[in-house]
Specification:
The protein has 246 residues and is an alpha/beta fold. β2, α2 and β3 form a beta-alpha-beta unit. It is globular. It starts with 5 loop residues before the first strand and ends in a 5-residue tail after the last helix. It has 9 helices and 9 strands. It has one domain: Rossmann fold. It binds NADP nicotinamide-adenine-dinucleotide phosphate (NAP). NADP nicotinamide-adenine-dinucleotide phosphate (NAP) binds next to α1, α5 and β7.
């Protein structure tokens, strides 16, 4: 008997979102993939269906179109049991330092859009008394660094938002998971030199998301080494940190 639960994946066409979709589908969940590229999502839905036999649907969603959010949620076949936000944009830090439009795109895509849609989901889950929300944030939000503080500050805000939501809903039957993947070999990091020990493949993140939903974990550092690494980085005094190339 297949699991009757359903998961909505925002940014369902992302490498991590696709891996998460496959992980849930493999366990019999119904998967709803949402994003801007309906053609790409349809190909991906076909692939997940073929590999798992799960029910998979696709839905148009733009995280920058905040006025559409209520209508988007109303248009789903049913309120899902879990929602995962894999929406994000790394952007170009150098360009964003000079160009307000690029900085705005990075901030809105990594914080404003994901936080506002998950806030609306949270209200619906609270009214029902159940549900799990997963936000993919980043270790980049654990401390601002010269090379990526625009993306990092948006992720820091998203991490704080998820923490507050978890605190608000803890006694309401609604669980909130914050995922900090570390480096992942995806389209977003293509061409970057990534340290092997601190880097994982998307399927590892997908499985970690599924496990966190089932175990009701609060915060997940997918590659575990990132937790002590970020603890050490956060512990460096600011007067020293500002002189370091890190
Ligand atoms: N890769 C890493 O090392 C890493 C590390 C830490 C955290 N993360 C986070 O993991 C998540 C997934 O990233 P990924 O690595 O799998 O990269 P990715 O494949 O580039 O995924 C990014 C996703 O965000 C979607 N997106 C961007 N703007 C959107 C918008 N306005 N509306 C709807 N969807 C939008 C993209 O959709 P389109 O195809 O329509 O552009 C794409 O599906 C992101 O939140 C990212 O910040 C990644």
């Amino acid at each position: 008997m297949p699991d009757q639960r359903s998961v909505l994946i925002l940014g369902g066409g992302s490498d991590i979102g696709r891996a998460a979709g496959l992980a849930f589908a493999a366990k019999g969940w119904t998967v709803r993939l949402a994003g801007r590229d309906l053609q790409g999502l349809t190909r991906e839905a076909d692939d997940i269906r073929t590999r798992t036999g799960a029910t998979v649907s696709v839905h148009r969603f733009d995280a920058l179109d905040t006025p559409s959010f209520d209508g988007f949620l109303d248009g789903l076949p049913a309120l899902p049991d879990a929602v995962v936000s894999a929406v994000g944009v790394l952007g170009d830090q150098g360009a964003a330092e000079r160009d307000v439009a690029e900085a705005t795109r990075i901030m809105r895509s990594n914080f404003e859009g994901p936080a506002l849609i998950l806030g609306l989901v949270a209200n619906r889950f609270e009214a029902r008394g159940s549900g799990t929300i997963v936000g993919i944030s980043s270790v980049a939000g654990d401390r601002g660094r010269a090379t990526n503080y625009i993306y990092g500050s948006a992720k820091a805000a998203f991490t704080a938002f998820l923490s507050g939501l978890r605190n608000r809903l803890a006694r309401k039957g609604v669980h909130v998971v914050t995922v900090k993947p570390g480096f992942v070999r995806t389209r977003m990091t293509a061409g970057m030199a990534l340290p092997g020990l601190l880097t994982v493949d998307p399927d590892v993140v997908g499985n970690a998301i599924y496990a966190a939903v089932e175990k009701r974990t609060d915060v997940v550092y997918v590659a575990r080494a990132w937790q002590p690494v970020m603890f050490a980085i956060r512990s460096i005094p600011e007067r020293l940190f500002k002189t370091m190339k890190i």
